[in-house]
Design goal:
With 329 residues, the protein is of the alpha+beta class. A hairpin with a 2-residue loop joins β2 and β3. It is globular, with a radius of gyration of 21 Å.
Length: 329
């Protein structure tokens, strides 16, 4: 790999990083410094053309002053290396810490919201408005009838697991609980959006993709699913990841600070955020991706996230107005 980057120096060590679910990462030390080597594994975003598009967007964002870590260019002027049918990219190593919401102060929460707003407005400049036209129009919200079928399948899987453990017991409880909630709130399914504020979004804005040094975010790492979506929905989804507590509640004080900074930086209105809160809440009520990974794919990497994620959907339903107000006031 490093033969393609003569300016990077000779390799000394290569240490695998244990964070992240979809791709593999390594810290590579050379005679000239340290680098982050990314092995793109996700089939949906790991093709060369998609990665190149992400890299170009990252380079352009840097030119606008957005804190990002663009890839290193090799001797041929490329940023993606294919070896054995897999794609790799080399990035400069950025010293910093990944911080979840519990580790962020109110001031840092403000800066986080401002950062995402800067990413959204920056992407609008570097990707061009013409590429957004018509994208994701008519995107329907999840149908509870289809969700009920998924719940039945997952319930059968959880009940049939041998030997059963505490996770299976919790899964069964949450599935039954969620079915009841969906029956109670089926009339609140969001309508197909009519021209929401749609634009290019990061696609993967969460604590492992933001590096902080002191009080400042110093690097916003590229999002593999860079694409076109209602921007405010990404702001709400990100907050639900950053600011969820282990018991499944959101730190609404920090959410309020984050959302105010985001609205100011992105030029988003309260009505736009309120609609996004409703759609993401409904999305969470109908989503069982962690259980799908466990019971359908036999992949347990996301199991530790389930207690908080599953509790959040229930708490959010109960505290719906308070959550909406935190994003819009």
């Amino acid at each position: 790999m490093l033969r393609r980057y003569p300016d990077a120096g000779d390799p000394l060590t290569c240490e695998p990083l244990d964070q992240g679910l979809l791709n593999h990462g390594y810290r590579v030390s050379t005679t000239r410094g340290s680098y982050f080597l990314k092995h793109h594994l996700d089939d949906s975003t790991g093709d060369r053309a998609t990665i190149v598009r992400q890299h170009r967007a990252t380079q352009r964002l840097q030119s606008l002053g957005v804190p990002v870590a663009p890839p290193v260019v090799d001797s041929e002027g490329d940023t993606v290396t294919e070896i054995g049918g897999r794609c790799y990219a080399l990035h400069p190593w950025v010293d910093g810490l990944h911080r979840a919401g519990a580790q962020l102060t109110l001031a840092q929460s403000l800066r986080l919201g401002a950062l995402l707003g800067a990413v959204h407005t920056g992407l609008e400049q570097v990707m061009g408005e013409g590429s957004v036209a018509g994208a994701r129009s008519g995107h329907a919200s999840p149908d509870p009838a289809a969700t009920f079928a998924v719940i039945d399948e997952l319930l059968a899987a959880a009940r049939g697991r041998r030997p059963r453990d505490a996770f299976d017991e919790l899964a069964e409880h949450r599935l039954l609980e969620r079915r009841t909630l969906l029956e109670q709130h089926a009339d609140r399914r969001p309508p197909t959006p009519d021209g929401p504020a749609t634009g290019w979004v990061h696609g993967d804005f969460h604590p492992l993709n933001v590096l902080n040094r002191g009080a400042q975010p110093v690097a916003n790492l590229e999002g593999d699913p860079l694409g076109v979506q209602p921007r405010a929905e990404e702001a709400v989804r990100a907050a639900a990841i950053f600011f969820v507590q282990p018991a499944g509640k959101l730190e609404l004080g920090k959410v309020r600070a984050y959302a105010r900074a985001y609205r100011r930086a992105a030029g988003a209105g309260a009505h736009e955020l309120a609609a996004a809160v409703h759609r993401v809440w409904w999305e969470r009520l109908n989503d069982f991706w962690i259980l799908h990974w466990r019971y359908c794919l036999n992949d347990r990497r996301a199991d530790p996230q389930f207690p908080a994620v599953s509790a959040l959907a229930v708490w959010w339903t109960r505290e719906y107005e308070a959550v909406r107000d935190a994003f819009t006031e």
